Amino acid sequence: MANEFLTLAKKRRTIYTLSKESTVPDDKIREIVYEAVKHTPSSFNSQSARAVVLFGKHHDKLWEITTQVLKAIVPEDQFASTQKRMDGFRAAYGTILYFEDMAVIEALQAQFPTYQERFPTWAQQSSGMLQYVIWTALANEGLGASLQHYNPLIDEQVRAEWSLPETWELIAQMPFGKPTAPPGDKEFKPLEERVKIYT
User: Fold this and answer.
1) 3-state SS of the chain: helix, strand, coil percent to 5?
2) What is the biggest distance separating any 2 CA atoms in the chain, rounded to whole angstroms?
3) Which of 99, 100, 116, 139 has the fewest other C-beta atoms within 10 Å?
4) 82 Cα distance to chain centroid
5) What confidence tens digit (pLDDT) does each residue in 15-61 have?
6) Residue 32 burial by Cβ neighbours in a 10 Å radius (0-12, 13-18, 19+)
7) Whose CA is closest to 125, among 107, 98, 103?
8) DSSP assignments along 46-107, one per residue
């Protein structure tokens, strides 16, 4: 079983060249997100992670919002590369938005003041695990994805567009779709420099 899991881990790669096609029905993507949110661990079993799945026009709207926000701050003579990046994300099939509910985290901080400074860090760690679980599960279904971070630039517009609670803090955006090209080559630093084992 461990080998099967590691095989899936190797399959998960950052893929930017995505199409508006999916290898699985939307219901399967919903199932992946539901199961991942339910079973990904969190500190003190806080279950503070939140996810929003955007398909169709909602997916397109997210990248329209992001494009307009960036257009207002990126110099015009440098915007062409930004526009190309935005067009690439919009060309995908959908996007998953990852949030943390700060109300849950703040309640834990009040309940356990000894650890109050650590709860935001622990929440980020749990969010990272959730992103990894979903990303790997999507890869197993033949879908490519990448992880983006245009927060906090787009936070207010995202909350307003989809009527999300003020306490939901945006963590990351994951456009996904059917890959139109394989991922690029990846270099690995020597594991001897990254792992130490003592027996």
Assistant:
1) 50, 15, 30
2) 58
3) 116
4) 20
5) 999 999 999 999 999 999 999 999 999 999 999 999 999 999 999 99
6) buried
7) 98
8) ---EEEEEEEHHHHHHHHHHHHHHHHTTS-GGGHHHHHHHHHHHHTSSEEEEEEEEHHHHHH
- Give the pair of three-digit tokens for residue 107: 């309640």
* Phi-psi group of 73: left, alpha or beta (phi > 0 → left; psi -120 to 50 → alpha; rest → beta): alpha
126 in Cβ contact with 157 (< 8 Å): no
d(CA 31, CA 98): 16
Q: Note the pTM of the prediction, 2 decimals.
A: 0.96
Measured CA to CA, the distance from residue 28 to residue 22 in angstroms comes to 10
Compute the CA torsion angle 43, 48, 49, 55 (nearest 10 deg): 170
